[in-house]
Structure formats: C-alpha cells, structure tokens
Task: structure prediction
Amino acid sequence: MVERIHCEWAQLSDEPTSEHQDELQGHADHGDQMNLCDAWVCICGNKPQLLGFYPCDPEGNALEPDGSASGLVFCDQCQRIIDQMTGTVFGFRPPEARDLR
Result:
C-alpha cells in the first residue's frame, strides 16, 4: 500500500455549501500536484503550521532550504520522508539522521 499525504482543503470540498469557495477552488485546481499545495496533512496529522516539514536528502538527512533541495521533505512529527511533487511517502528517517536538525 502506498502512503500519501493529503490536502486539508480536499476534505472540505465535499461540503456542498462551504463558505471558503475561493480556497477550495485553488486547492481543487492543484489536484495531485502536492508541490502546489500549502495545506498538507501528513498521515500522522502534522501540518505546516504545527511541527512542519523540512527539506532532506533520500537518506533523511536535513538540508538547508537554500534551493539545493532534493524534492524530498521529512515530517518533523513522524519522520516520514515525502516526495514534494506527489505527496507519496518515500520512507522514514533513520534515528541517526533525526539528531541533525
């Protein structure tokens, strides 16, 4: 089974009379392109405004957010490594990488 993060607004789009139509439309437009979303919800429940997500390499080592990113981020709550483009979980950060952020 492939794990994926989801867009917080995607769940609200099922409500027929939402008061947030502009936000809903913007998030409906990005579809599965999670790199265009700013309302991620990890499988563990983490969100950008909570513990957040940080750039990392494929081994889970934290990277500086200076443009040298690999396209991967890690969830600072559950340590999942996530592909920014698709929201697909790539793996988990090993314990030795967790102390480096």
Observations:
- Residues 6-98 form one domain.
- The chain has a mean pLDDT of 81.
